[in-house]
Amino acid sequence: MRSLSELTGDEAQSLRGVLFDLDDTFLTHGLLTREAYGALWKLADAKLRLVAVTGRPSGWGEVVARQWPIDAAVTENGAIVAVREGRGIQLLDPCGEEERRARRIRLARLVESVRERVAEVRLSDDVDARRSDVTWDVGERIHLPEDRIALLLEEIAKAGARSTRSSVHVHATFDVEDKASGTLRLLAARFGEDVSAARSQYAFVGDSGNDRACFNAFQLTFGVANVRGNLAGLGATPRYVAASPMGMGFAEVAEAILAKRGGRS
Question: What are the pLDDT digits (tens) for 191-210?
């Protein structure tokens, strides 16, 4: 991983947009800081397309896509997308209503089997705002030991579901999308981007295991400083890393991009 000071002008000037994770990347322990939010506005003022790419629920996506200076929010690790539609928000779900109901029933059964196997595990406090997945709290309000997390992951696999782990949650889903595929689908379908070109024209900023797909899919990638503690689960390391963690690190990344584009605020 390279220092942000090594970012080249050509890399920054070729960008059409910036994609960014929320928890522990844009948000700092769940808090939206002044530095991060100000940096987001600076990127928006530079006419870059901005997309939040998160494991958080589609219910959250509806709010941030409506209130923040972003073009869309890819939520639930790629499954559901919230986009601006005039003065409102449209949710894009490639799964049909009947199939979505069937998957929700299977997830409910999985929740019960996990409760029997790992009695102390708790669902995340945002689970009611989700459509495609179910999540357990392993590091946000509750710190679940690694051996118990392993049992949780075993139970998810036994049910035939797919698991993803972020810095705070373990997710289970019967959907096939990940953060990268869901984002590329959005860029092509909604904004008319060529998928191959988008991989080099959009930067991604992240920090943890569920960002792995995006770190692999996009050419220009950034990690905030706390990504160093999650490298073993990434497979591909970000090209550049900020000196600061979380929201302050995001602000550093934004400043570096704008400076190399000749648009320092």
Answer: 999 999 999 999 999 999 88
